[in-house]
Amino acid sequence: MITIERVQTGVRIEKRMLKVLKALAEHFDMSLGELIECMVLHAFDGERVFGDETLGRIAKLREVYGLDLNRAHAHALREEAP
């Protein structure tokens, strides 16, 4: 085990995406922060983050929560003015 220091952050994220991530973290019995750390570490190493089975689960969760965004939308998202 490696000892680390975690900090609280106020990251804002798209609502439906957060629901999918929280459900996926619950599936793996880990916190949302732990899931994000795992995803980032894999991505930083240029590795595939999820296997086929998990990608299938994500597809179902995206459908449940109506998440129709994909990587093509990544640089085109903007928040609606209040």
Salient structural properties:
mainly alpha; 0% strand; 82 residues
Describe the structure.
- With about 80 residues, the protein is mainly alpha-helical.
- The chain starts with 14 loop residues before the first helix and ends in an 18-residue tail after the last helix.
- Helix 1 (about 15-25) packs across helix 2.
- About 50% of the residues lie in helices and about 0% in strands.
- The protein has helices spanning about 15-25, 30-45, 50-65.
- The chain has three helices and no strands.
- It has a domain at about 15-65.
- The chain is globular.
- The model has no long low-confidence stretch (mean pLDDT about 95).
Count of DSSP strands: 0
Determine the structural class based on helices, strands and strand pairing. Answer: mainly alpha
Please report the number of helical segments. Answer: 3
* Poorly predicted runs of 5 or more residues: none
Summarize the entry for a quick read.
The protein is mainly α.
Helices and strands in order, then pairings?
Layout: H1 15-27, H2 32-44, H3 52-64
Helix pairs in contact: 1-2, 1-3
